[in-house]
Write a structure and sequence with these properties.
alpha/beta, Rossmann fold, 2 domains, 6-stranded parallel beta sheet, 10 helices, 12 strands
Length: 346
């Protein structure tokens, strides 16, 4: 992928992929917005070939039959891979379950949940924002939801509902980033309102690894672009969070172009964003999400929902680095170190 023609093809593909990822991770994936045309590079051509994953997550053994869950409704916002992959992992732990797809136009959500309530399932697992909203509003059974980033905007947390974190542990994210990029010293981040706990977690992760973290809160995509233009000259890394309220495809593409021009390394939240200009991606692991959900369900089955935190953290992260781009952005580095697989699980 070193040649110019391949580089340009990668950019056109990556914009489309990036938009899909933003919609997936931020809103937990309603229909994709229109695709913006790529903005031409503002610097000399640079290789953006995406390296093979630097970490392979080992498959966990299937739980014994005696420990498998029963009588669960799995509700999907749609049939996107980010939803279906988690549902497939959940099936390894559950004997008696039914899957419901809210994107099926033949049946409205109210009818779906009438059937779910009549079947008297022990719990409902909601994957994605629309599924979570519908389940919290209409399910008579306890609800565990996942794949929702801005959950504080939708009043999803009640006495009978619990959430799963939308991001992998930020400590693992920063450890991997620092391992790959030892020169990292000043990192910026821009995020929308309502994420005080996430900001605190990011600050602790940065401090632990000797990184100065500068966080700004934004109210819109235009404000994000303005803040980033002022910030980009003062940092050597940027931590991108999947907040669609303050990001648009156009603004995101311009930010990544500005970052490359200023040799700022960007940590993204999906592998598909590496070809657009991300230096390292730190994404969730489907099996980890499923196992975390199962742990919550076991406590609910035992009547201990009060002991479950409002949002349960994940324990694993999948790391992929764009080694070719890192070598371009770090021309004085002797080499780009690779990760040790032991860093991916807490």
């Amino acid at each position: 992928m070193a040649g110019k023609n391949v580089f340009e093809t990668s950019r056109r593909f990556s914009v489309t992929a990036c938009i899909a990822v933003i919609v997936t991770a931020c809103t937990t994936m309603p229909p994709e917005p229109p695709v913006a045309e790529p903005v031409p590079d503002v610097v000399d051509e640079a290789p953006v070939a995406v390296a093979e994953p630097t970490v392979v997550i080992p498959a966990e053994p299937k739980p014994p039959e005696s420990k498998r869950l029963r009588s669960v409704a799995i509700v999907l916002t749609g049939r996107q891979p980010a939803y279906e992959n988690v549902a497939n992992e959940l099936a390894k732990h559950i004997d008696n379950y039914s899957t419901f797809d809210l994107s099926d136009k033949r049946e409205p959500p109210v009818t779906t949940f009438r059937r779910i309530n009549d079947a008297d399932y022990r719990a409902v697992i909601a994957i994605g924002l629309r599924a979570a909203q519908s389940a919290v509003a209409m399910s008579r059974a306890p609800v565990v939801f996942c794949q929702v980033f801005n959950l504080q905007d939708y009043e999803l947390l009640t006495d009978a509902t619990r959430g799963i974190a939308a991001l992998p542990p930020l400590g693992l994210n920063m450890a991997a980033w620092k391992s790959i990029d030892p020169a990292l010293q000043r990192v910026g981040a821009i995020i929308g309102t309502g994420h005080d706990e996430l900001i605190s977690e990011a600050r602790m992760a940065a401090e632990k690894h000797g990184v100065d973290l500068y966080v700004r809160v934004s109210q819109s995509d235009q404000e994000t672009q303005y803040i980033f233009k002022r910030m980009v000259r003062e940092i050597d890394g940027f931590w991108l969070f999947p907040d669609n309220r303050i990001l648009s495809p156009r603004v995101l593409e311009q930010m990544l172009a500005d970052a490359k021009q200023n040799r700022v390394r960007v940590a993204v939240f999906s592998e598909s964003m590496l070809a657009m200009g991300g230096s390292i991606s730190a994404s969730t692991v489907d099996s980890d999400i499923a196992e975390t959900i199962v742990g919550v369900l076991r406590k609910i089955e035992a009547g201990n929902i009060a002991s479950v935190p409002a949002v349960s953290p994940l324990t694993e992260v999948r790391i992929v680095s764009n080694d070719a781009l890192l070598k371009y952005l770090l021309p004085t580095a002797a080499s780009v170190p690779r990760l040790n697989a032991s860093t991916v699980k807490q």
